[in-house]
Amino acid sequence: MDPQLIERIVLLMRDNDLNMVEVRDGQQRIVLRRGAVEYVAGPSSTPAMPAAVPARASSPESSSAGAADDAGLVPIKSPMVGTFYSKPSPDAKPFVSVGSVIDDETDVCIIEAMKTFNTVKAECRGMIAKVLAIDGAPVDFNKVLFLVKPS
Q1: Which residues, in sequence order, are CB contacts of 66 under 8 Å at separation 6+?
Q2: In sequence order, what are the beta bridge partners of 39?
């Protein structure tokens, strides 16, 4: 890939306050996220997109009571802004659910950003204690998607 093109994309990201940009050139893919560069070779799979589900509002009382219950749990956060999908296709079962045992390499969800489907790895070991994101709902960068009871 052309380094000058990458520099221009970085400037566009800065000028337009973008968190992530993905560029493909044949089998090569570069994902730019908040200044970090990830090089991935090979094609990626694209699952079908499930229908969107409206997000639920939480009350201040429920969020403060829930904070005490969440002590000691490890969060799995969204690495980007996009749409959260809990399963690889609309007719498939979810990657994980409450009670699922996970390790560092377990796929936990997909975040779709700009028509690109990105698989999110757990990057921790334990058991899924809570699923906080809603299938088909938008998520922000660094939003907690799951809480894990470490093992």
Answers
A1: none
A2: 30
Quick one: which H or E segment has residue 20? Answer: strand 20-25
pLDDT per 10-residue tile (average), the chain, 151 residues:
73 76 75 53 43 41 56 91 92 93 94 91 93 91 93 85
Structure tokens at 76: 């799995």
Alpha-helical regions (H) of the chain:
3-15, 60-69
Structure tokens at 74: 């490890």
Q: Tell me which residue has tokens 């997109």.
A: 49
Residue 143: other Cβ atoms inside 10 A: 17
Measured distance CA(108)–CA(85) in Å, rounded: 9
d(CA 83, CA 36): 21
d(CA 81, CA 137) in angstroms, rounded, equals 11
Helix (H, G, I), strand (E, B) or coil at 14: helix
